[in-house]
Structure prediction request, 424 residues.
Amino acid sequence: MINAVERALHDIDPVIAGILNNAIDGKDISIDEACELLECSREDELNAMVMVADMLRKEKVGDHVSYVINRNINFTNVCIKRCGFCAFSRDFREEEGYLLPMEEIVRRAEEAYRFGATEVCIQAGLMPRMDGMLYIDICRAVKRAVPDIHIHAFSPEEIMYGALRAGMSIEEYLKALKDAGLGSIPGTAAEILVQEVRDIISPGRIKVKDWISIIKTAHRLGIPSTSTIMYGHVEGSMHKALHLALIREIQRETGGFTEFVPLSFVYREAPMYRHGLVKGLRPGPSRDEVLKMHAVSRIMLNNYIPNIQVSWVKEGLEMCRMLLNAGANDMGGTLMNESISTAAGSMNGQMLKPREMRALIRSIGRIPVQRDTLYRRLRVFDEGQDHQYQDPLDMVEDTSIFGSYHELIRLDRFRYKHSFLHKY
Prediction:
């Protein structure tokens, strides 16, 4: 592989080759250098970048590709904020607004655990007049019912809203969540961590400085988080490079990020795309942009964040195969329910069974690993073991038993009602 990389670097622009050689030597690339890579337009340069990212991946984490058995529980789509990229949220007056009562949230967590899930990922809209203790009570109820499940829940935006509604400081609120059973938080609500971009696509959403403060506070309290970027809309290469540099700087300081997840903007149902609300909006990233984003993420973060995750929901399985050879090493989760990307128009399904994950990983000559939320290995599937083991989730023939987003927004029994807010 090294000889192939050397040949590829020999044939490209010396500036790009120099940046990639520095990465191979273990040096941190600068913001400007990351921008140079993201601006590459020649196929030979992209190929060289992908090869270097793949080599760094192999040196850092080997040939294992991991996944987690989890379930998403998006307990309401009612939200006081109307972000231009979000097709999931509904105003409380809209007919499609829903809210899962506490017993249904707990039932879904219990069901997930019975089918082998080690994690529930809980996120939702920001309901008007929400009781600030709701998130804490959700954690407590889920942990009481399923003590062994990991609760991965509540973005920095949700934490800020919950703390405000509860009349608590961010630190007090995070401590209360942790005491109630919160294990980690998703580093979502990040989009692009450059304020001028946020002011275009999501004015009124959490500010960059607040996102950073909440993430750092969580890490200091021993609550790890993921990190993400959502790209392919109005941002430029410099914005993406600045975002990556900020994630790297936070990780240098706290060490609290478990992974980095590039997320393509799903445009089809996004209000800012459907209604032409944002000038210069792109309909998601191109194939080459997606490849570059994952490769540059590996190159720029390799010394600090070992795990680069692909989003099968946003990219589809064929693209995931390519990305696992472009620096990524993790397939994410089974999900069981996926609402947010589905609402935005993603057509890649709402669930992926463990055996399907393993088959995809095997198809590129890599070794499947079931992990937990914190990347501890639970099961390594050595050669031939894939067919000797069946997860409970693999044995589910009719996945409709878990319900779907499109069904959920039509169900009368979960229709949003103000009375729910004080009866959870």
